[in-house]
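Need residues for this backbone.
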């Protein structure tokens, strides 16, 4: 028997990079910075995520962009690739500001708003960074609020980040839903008592040891079909 779906959320929170925005352009520029060695991209991203959590657990904070640059320099040093800080910054920051949305995003977000849902972004990126991304991707109109870990100096998937976001919106954890393409983000949201929907973007899988998400979909429009009107 299929597990019953939870009560519809009061607020739907969205991760941004890869969930809503297509990172293909940034992957290309980072790969070029690493001498065309695109096989190093997963190492760079995991190094960046790892050290964002190092900041959280050691009670320090740098922006995700700063950690991304530092991580790219680390990977380059490990692999013996010559790379300056300015080159690393250009490879990450320039394309990150103008990433396009995935093909399903605009229609999916509009359909969720039409169904009466409150949409909020919740990102490890900076406030200015996500504003610029949404402005360039023409997504600003869909979101009632944009929340950044920059305001509490704690990166997802720290459970305190989800607790803060729910409190910020004045709702209980069970009334929040996270939509994300990252298994680690889904793991954090579920452990924090949230509902969660995993979007299986290319190359993305769930963490098998985490609590399973409430919804597992291929794109945002599929999620829309599964959620009732408010």
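Answer:
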């Amino acid at each position: 028997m299929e597990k019953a779906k939870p009560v519809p959320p009061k607020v739907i929170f969205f991760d941004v990079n890869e969930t809503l925005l297509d990172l293909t352009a940034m992957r290309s520029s980072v790969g070029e910075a690493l001498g065309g060695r695109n096989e190093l991209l997963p190492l760079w991203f995991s190094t960046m995520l790892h050290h964002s959590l190092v900041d959280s657990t050691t009670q320090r904070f740098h922006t995700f962009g700063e950690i991304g640059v530092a991580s790219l320099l680390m990977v380059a040093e490990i692999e013996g690739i010559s790379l300056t800080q300015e080159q690393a910054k250009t490879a990450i920051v320039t394309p990150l500001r103008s990433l396009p949305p995935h093909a399903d995003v605009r229609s999916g977000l509009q359909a969720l708003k039409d169904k009466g849902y409150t949409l909020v972004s919740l990102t490890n990126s900076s406030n200015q960074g996500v504003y610029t991304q949404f402005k360039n991707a023409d997504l600003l109109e869909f979101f009632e609020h944009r929340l950044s870990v920059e305001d509490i100096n704690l990166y997802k998937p720290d459970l305190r980040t989800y607790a803060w976001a729910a409190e910020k919106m004045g709702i209980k954890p069970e009334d929040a839903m996270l939509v994300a393409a990252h298994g680690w983000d889904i793991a954090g949201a579920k452990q924090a008592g949230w509902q969660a929907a995993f979007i299986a973007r290319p190359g993305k899988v769930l963490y098998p040891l985490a609590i399973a998400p409430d919804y597992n979909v291929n794109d945002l429009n599929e999620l829309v079909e599964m959620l009732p009107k408010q």
